[in-house]
Amino acid sequence: MSAEFARHAPGPSVLPGSPSPYFLQAGQGEHAHLFDSLFTVLLGKEETEGQFGVFTMTAPKGQAIPVHAHPDVHEIFYLLDGRVRVWIQSAAGELLDRVLGPGDFGYVPAGLLHSYRSESDGTRVLGVCTGGFEGFFAAAGTRAGSADLPAHPYVPSPEQLGAAAAAFRNEFHPEVRFDA
Membrane-crossing residues (predicted)? Predict the structure, then answer.
């Protein structure tokens, strides 16, 4: 279990916590609810010696997440099901706006402002990030005991979200809106 996840999610994990070979069955992983979405960590920094994390995000059609950037975290979006709109502000200031569907791929280099919004119910994204950031979802959200979407959105307090953002160097920019 990733150390960041463990601080916020007591209980056993199916992840080995070291670079050991392992398999997960469908629905297994470290689950967390954040807003209306389910995040499932499949591989964390402990299993990759800090190199990368792998997670899935399942979400209904919803609102855009706040515009944010992480100065040292690279992130990818690979669409498994549904549609998600991704906004990225390039280093030159150009706003890139794309709706991704099954099989589509998007990459957000570290430091760039970005946001996304699920455009359809049942959206499923495979995400890969710089190792360690995968713990943000549990720190900002709440641990879930199953691979089900939350019955009610989990809205973290400003203090919880702020502490998670500080711990994982996730910089929110509420003054910026890409979805307006």
Answer: none
